[in-house]
Model the fold of this input.
Amino acid sequence: MITKRIIPCLDVKDGRVVKGVNFLGLADVSSPVSLAKYYSECGADELVFYDITASAEGRGLFTDILREVASTIFIPLTVGGGINTLEDFDRVLKCGADKVSVNSGAIRNPSLIGEAAKRYGDQCVVLSADVKRVDGVFRVFSKGGRENTGMEAIEWIKRGVDAGAGEVVVNSIDTDGVKNGFDLEMLEAVCNAVNVPVIASGGAGGIDHFTQLFRAIPTIDAGLAASIFHFGEVAIPDLKEELHKQGIPVRR
Amino acid sequence: MIAIVDYGVGNLFSLKSSFLSVGADAVVTDDAEILKRADHIVLPGVGAFGDAVKKLRESGLYQVVIDEARGGKPLLGICLGMQMLLEKSYEYGEHEGLGLIQGSIRPIGDVIPSNYKVPHIGWNALHFPKQKHPLFKNVKDGDYVYFVHSYHGTDCSENLAATTEYGGTLTAAVAQGSIMGCQFHPEKSGDVGLKILKAFCEL
Done:
């Protein structure tokens, strides 16, 4: 049986993981390579690296890091952040990324999804959407959640999938950082609209939120989180043990 | 030496790295002479079947791979590379494969319920027939590996080496003696995948 995936997300700036990381026994807590190794050994099913660097120099550091991660750990790697062109896809795929996540780049140039899917295959293109309720309607936000594009989110995601996105990451701005649980209403609306894997992001505060997510929405494929894993609030082996106990299929 | 066939499809960085990590001497090559000198050959692949076979033919390596495999050199096809080992594929038309292993490639949609998502993406469990192929000597029934595919091998009869369950039974691996293929990605399947690659190197 296919298992539900647990995915830690790492923000990388100038080659280092940002947001303090609080792990015992990790010599270098801001090294993407040691963190990736740590997560892989803990049973993470996949890793997402998000490049938040602005400078060209930083971009170079990022690809060096990516190459090092990809030669050290052997689970799927998704890379996002600053993906605006096919050349950006090429740059990270050559360094060992398996999937590339597009967000603002696809909003600025929607044909990027189709072009990338045609060149690298649907399985390679992940559409990531930051979504927030505005007057009761799900709207897509760009630029890291700062700017309302005015687009209706479900329509946008459907469009992306029709164009060739092979997976969707839905990040609810409303629940992000609140640690009160995933945005079940929003995620269910997306799952009902598309037939590709949907990854839930935003709002996880504890193990219960993952069990709640997979129980409430059986068609959701994965749960993604950052700080709760980084700060050790949720340990992946404990999370998987609990999901297993609750009858939710996970890789252990 | 392990030769990974480079015929212009996909990125082989992780695949090469994974072989290096199990202590193998691996090279990515489009040179027929290196394939002939290698102890083992790996045929990777992503994308569409018809295109990939065409590219392999254009690279001039198509016949070399067939001859080396028929001569007894261990060959491992991965993902689309596994599919190409079979006789034909029905992906976007009908295309001939290398014909090294009996069987044909058909949509997984033929054997799974319509509400299941296609492609089959994620970690799923391997199941083995009674007689386990040596490629899997270090892994257990129920071990998880990473899949990404919309088509799979059918009519492989006794060459079916592993299956996985996704609302129906899908072909996860095929093998006929020293010719083997994995539908999943061992180079992305953590420790289980590395054990499979190591076993291949030891064949």
Notes: Residues 2-201 of chain B form a domain with the Rossmann fold fold (CATH 3.40.50.880). Helices of chain B lie at 13-21, 32-37, 49-58, 62-70, 80-83, 190-201. Chain B has one domain: 2-201.
